[in-house]
Amino acid sequence: MEFDWSPEDSQHRTEIKAFLDEVLPENWEEMSSHGPGSDVQAHYSREFCGKMAEQGWLTQHWPTEYGGKQATPWRHAVVGEEMWAIGEPRGSQYMNVNWIGPSIMEYGTEEQKAHHLPLISSGNVLWCQGFSEPEAGSDLASLRTRAEKIDDHYIINGSKIWTSYCQHANYCFLLVRTDPASKRHKGISVLLVPMDTPGIEVREIPSVVGDRYFHEVFFTDVKVPCSVLLGEENNGWNVVNTALQFERIGAARYARATVTLDKLAEVATQRGLMDDPIIVDRLGEARALCEAARVLVYKVIDLRAKGSPPTADTQVARVLSTECDNAIGRLALDIYGPESLEYASFADSNYRLAMTAGVAVGATEVQLNLIASRFLELPKE
User: Fold this and answer.
1) Domain for residue 2, yes or no?
2) Where are the beta strands (DSSP E) in the chain?
3) 3-state SS, residue 235
4) Nearest by Cα to 77 from 1, 23, 2, 5
5) Rounded CA gap, 206 and 185, in Å?
6) DSSP SS3 for 222
7) Which of 14, 49, 185, 211 is most buried, taking the most CB atoms under 10 A from its CB?
8) In tens digits, what is the pLDDT along the chain, a chain of 381 residues?
9) Confidence (pTM)
10) What pairs with residue 156 in β-bridges?
11) Do residues 92 and 45 make contact, with C-beta atoms less than 8 angstroms apart?
12) How far apart are CA 111 and CA 227, in angstroms?
């Protein structure tokens, strides 16, 4: 089995690294330490993604008719690894290119495609996802935010919680229940809602994760035209499944974890910690987790490159990515010791970023349940 990158993809990785060296500001490390939801990084993402778009790299894996270059999923993976390895300067726009755009391509009307896809491919629009609710966290099928259809409009009432990036977002990829008599997966629809619509209120939830990371979003008699419906009414669960299969390996967390691990090994050597067999074992275990996560993600990318439908391999890869992220986050705290208590320090920033891995796009427990049912085919009790 051949695991090396093609010469073309290797050359592209070199080009991406040179581009990053050229365009990232000198204080990028400090900027990125506050997380992709921070005000400064959200603002910078527009400038950065605009430069990527000028190079033709932001959505190069998209079809040419939507502003792409028909590049392979592997080429997009190269970009994702290099972006996450240095702190994701695309900010929340990584979601745009990974799954919001592809979902609109798959289910959107011609009008929706014509409006949204050029904005995404130009790097000049921010999105958030309105999924979790106070009584429906990772169990999305329990959502209760309602959209009532009246003539040619929907009236939205309800709330979302733990929403990231929404304080700067132009649009929300919103899950609602359009059939009030429905239960679970049925009766759910997806709406592409402008965030400046009257009746939307955003409240930040203070947290240890990072600046502007979590929010509550309240919808009070929010009126939107029916043209914002993505896909079929009451059949939005298919849209959600498509989106999440792209998103669960969209963030190359193992790439960031690997870079962090290399830094930790240097620091451990400088501080004489390599004489501690426990530290050495933990460094080795973390390296193995990084490599396992990488190979499992590559398996999913390979399936995608071959045009195969999504499988539970996506969940397996996601769980391992979470494991390596958390293992290295904890290791950083131990190696840096009391210095880890300083906000936005190297260890602190990495640990806070790792904390989000186990809940984003479906909690780890949800992924394990999906593995049990879809991969191991275990019976449900």
Assistant:
1) no
2) 127-130, 146-150, 153-160, 171-177, 188-194, 200-205, 214-225, 229-230
3) strand
4) 5
5) 31
6) strand
7) 49
8) 566 788 999 999 999 999 999 999 999 988 877 666 678 888 899 999 999 999 999 999 999 999 899 999 899 999 999 998 888 899 889 999 999 999 999 999 999 999 999 999 999 999 999 988 887 655 666 788 999 999 999 999 999 988 888 889 999 999 999 988 777 778 899 999 999 999 999 998 876 665 567 889 999 999 999 999 999 999 888 888 777 766 666 678 888 889 889 999 999 999 999 999 999 999 999 999 999 989 888 888 888 888 877 777 777 888 888 888 888 888 998 899 888 888 777 788 777 777 766 565 556 666 676 667 666 777 776
9) 0.85
10) 147, 222
11) yes
12) 9
- Beta strands at 229-230 and 153-160: parallel, antiparallel or unpaired: unpaired
Look up the CATH number of the domain holding residue 56.
Answer: 1.10.540.10
* C-alpha pair distances (Å), 90 with each of 53, 168, 221, 331: 11, 14, 33, 27
Q: How far apart are CA 136 and CA 145, in angstroms?
A: 10
Residue 88 in contact with residue 32, Cβ under 8 Å? yes
In the numeric block, the tokens 């930790």 are attached to 264
Domain assignment of residue 67, given as a range: 7-125
Which residues are CB-contacts of 270 (< 8 A; sequence separation ≥ 6)?
Answer: none
CB 322 within 8 A of CB 248: no
Say how many Å lie between the first and final Cα of the chain, rounded: 39
Biggest distance spanned by C-alpha atoms of the chain: 72
Dump the DSSP string for 133-149: BTTBSS-GGG---EEEE
User: Which pair of structure tokens corresponds to residue 1?
Assistant: 């089995």
The residue written with tokens 């290295």 in the block is: 328
How many residues in the chain? 381
The CATH number of residue 314's host domain is 1.20.140.10
